[in-house]
Every structure is written in C-alpha cells, then in structure tokens.
Amino acid sequence: MNNKPTEELDSILADTHPEKIGDYIKGQREYLADPNKGFYYYYKDVLDAKHIKLKDVYAQVGVTESYGSKIVSMEKHTKNRDLIIRMCLAGHFSLTETNRALKLYGFNELYSKNPKDACLIVALNNRIYDTDKINALLSENGQEGLKD
Questions:
Q1: Which of 15, 81, 102, 107 has a Cα at 20 to 30 A from 38?
Q2: Counting runs of H as helices and runs of E as strands, what totals does the chain give?
Q3: Do 114 and 45 share a structural domain?
Q4: Range of the domain at 10
Q5: Is the pTM of this model over 0.70?
C-alpha cells in the first residue's frame, strides 16, 4: 500500500462536493484504509507521529511481539479493554487518541461517570502514562487496577 499523508486527503475532501465522493473513493482507493483495519492504521499513525516503535509498546505492555501484532492488526480480537488502554498508555496517547482507539477497536470510550474511567481520564489529561502510577491512583480511589 502506498502512503499519502492524511492531511493531503483531508485537503482534497475539503474541496469535494457530495456528488463527487465516488470519484474521490475511486481516485484515492490505494490510499484508503480497509475499514476492518481501522484500528491498526490509526494506532500505527499515532505511534509513527510520536516516533514510538510497536516493539517498544509490546515490551512495555508485557506481551510478545507475535501476540501484540495479532492484537493490533485485529487478527486476534481481545475482549480485554484494559489491554487496549495499556497499549494506548504505552504509546503516550492523549485522551482523545485513546477514546478514538477504543472506539475503533469496538470498545466503549472512557466515560466520566464511571469511577475507574474517571481516574484514567485524569491520568491521561495529566500525561501520566506509567501503569504502576495509574494502578496506584486507581487503588487509592477504590478501583480495580488495569488488567494484564
């Protein structure tokens, strides 16, 4: 797959009229993400922008490269929302980036009315990415830590 910056595609779309969207899709097909791989492309784009390598994320999260790559590519779909959150933390994702990643993976976004999620939101807003510090914050507030 060739690569074209998202900003360039956004610029083309800014000048595209609704009746011309089909032309855009046909003309840019080689640059468009497979909807089934939305999480993968988004996750990789965010890591690339932050100059963080997938193998470093896997090491920090404590998963093998083989297992981690299957989770990220969605070849193997996890039901463990905390794993995706931990992967976002390892990638230094912002709250907005984390919520988008969770949504693309098929999980609920962090929700301010959920006490555990509220702790995670505060951590992300304060750029706390260390899982041990976050688990301590969760524990201090009577919440279960992030699961492996």
A1: 15
A2: 9, 0
A3: yes
A4: 1-32
A5: yes
